[in-house]
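Q: Got a minute? One more chain.
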Amino acid sequence: MEQYSCISTAQALELLDNNATVADIRDEQSFAAGHMPGAINVNNDNLQDFLHDTDMDKPLLVCCYHGISSQSAAQFLAHQGFDEVYSVNGGYESWRIDYPDRCER
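A: Always. Here it is, folded:
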């Protein structure tokens, strides 16, 4: 694909319910305080493992704080070979507001 798309939290929920992978690029403390269900906290320390261990055929949702830095991360990950990559508009803050019952700690 080598491109990504920006999607709403509603679209992200639909993909998540259909077994998408979630890469959360926020810092460890923010991730520990709450994240999307099943999210993987991805950073420079574990990026290579994430790329090696993650199914690139499944849709990949990229989440940050507000949906801005996830766009460049999504573009990078699209270039790494993922078939479908999406940046979540509004990031985790929008997800937390829209789906408070779908947040994990």
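A: The two ends are 32 Å apart (CA to CA).
Q: Perfect, thanks.
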